[in-house]
Amino acid sequence: MLKGDYMHASKIGLRNAIQPPSHEQQTKKLKKACKDFEAVFVYQMLKSMRKTIQKCDLFHGGQGEETYQSLMDMELSKEMADLGPGSLSRLLYDEFKGLLDTKPQGAEANNVTKIEK
Q: Could you give the CA distance from residue 20 to residue 111 in angstroms, rounded to a whole number?
């Protein structure tokens, strides 16, 4: 790249960087966000449920067991997210997808003024 070339947005890809994401990209992001939300929700629920269980000093493993249990609960919550047609993530996705479909696409949606060459 020459010394003056850094001023040209097309050479470094800035022109594409200001383009809004496609509808497909937005739906993928929405699905992931809904699934991640459900995973966090389930994790917090599992964490709260485990606090209600009384621990015996004979079998309780201390800090190591708590760390392992927390990691296992995180993985379990990720697996439990989006399991069936009535899952929280699918319900959220269906609700928010309707909003995504009604939102206008392009520069007008983001109040971005399109610059002509």
A: 11
pLDDT in tens, 31-69: 999 999 999 999 999 999 988 988 877 777 778 888 898
Q: Kindly report each contact of residues 34-38 with a partner whose C-beta sits within 8 Å and lies 24 or more positions away, as own/partner.
A: 34/82, 34/88, 34/89, 34/90, 34/92, 34/93, 34/96, 35/81, 35/82, 35/89, 36/81, 37/88, 37/89, 37/92, 38/80, 38/81, 38/82, 38/87, 38/88, 38/89, 38/92
pTM of this prediction exceeds 0.70 = no
- Cα–Cα distance between 68 and 76 in angstroms, integer? 12
